[in-house]
Structures are given as structure tokens and as C-alpha cells.
Amino acid sequence: MDWNDEHSTLVCKLFAQQVLRGNRPNTHLNSVGYDEVMQMFRQITGIELSKRQLRNKWDKMKPDFVAWQKLMRRQTGTGWDHSKGVIVLDDEWWKKAKKVKDNNIISYLLLN
């Protein structure tokens, strides 16, 4: 499966629906939750996914979600642009980011 932004957004919405319905008793969805996500994803996109593919996607998205949460909670000057669906950061954050030489700016700033 080639995950594009549209498919990733859709699966996030479908996962969120299942969480709200109580189909996530611990760290992952239960069988009912996965079955409903697979069915809805297939109805909307025409692509059939397995439970394993969905669980792998869940696991791969989790570090990004944790980083997003840290940015929104720990960093000063952050906000959310609903129209663009992106985090908004102030000029001071970008000044710090430009000082970092490697490509892992977010991880660096979250740890410091």
C-alpha cells in the first residue's frame, strides 16, 4: 500500500471514530474496530487493507503524533492553522531551528 496524505488522513479519521465508539480497549483497536475501519476504507477508496496493514500504519503514525503533541504542549508560540492543517510556530522557534545543522530539527528541539 502506498500511503498518500489523503489515505493517511482518512484512516486517522476512521481510527478516531472507532476510539470514540469504544473499540480501543488498550493500545490498539479491537477486532470490531479493525473490521469497521477495513470496511469503511474499502467503501470510500476501493482499496482493501488487511488488519496487519492497518496495525502497521497505526504503529508508524504514533511517533509523529507524539511529536505533534509535544510541539503543541511544550513549545511556546505554537498554534494550529485549521485551514492549512499545520502547526504554526513563531519566529523565535525558527531562529532556534536554523541553528541546528542536522535534518532532525523537531527531535532536537523537543529534547532540549
What does this structure look like?
With 112 residues, this protein is mainly α. The protein has one domain. The chain is 63% helix and 5% strand. It is built from five helices and two strands; from the N terminus they run H-H-H-E-E-H-H. The chain has a two-stranded antiparallel ribbon. A hairpin with a 4-residue loop joins strand 1 and strand 2 (86-88). Helix 1 (5-20) packs antiparallel against helix 2. The N and C termini lie far apart (36 Å). The mean pLDDT is 80. Residues 3-96 form the Myb/SANT-like domain. It holds the Pfam family Myb_DNA-bind_3. InterPro entries: Myb/SANT-like_dom. This is L10-interacting MYB domain-containing protein-like.
Structure summarized in a few sentences:
The chain is mainly α. It contains 5 helices and 2 strands, in the order αααββαα. A hairpin with a 4-residue loop joins β1 and β2 (86-88).
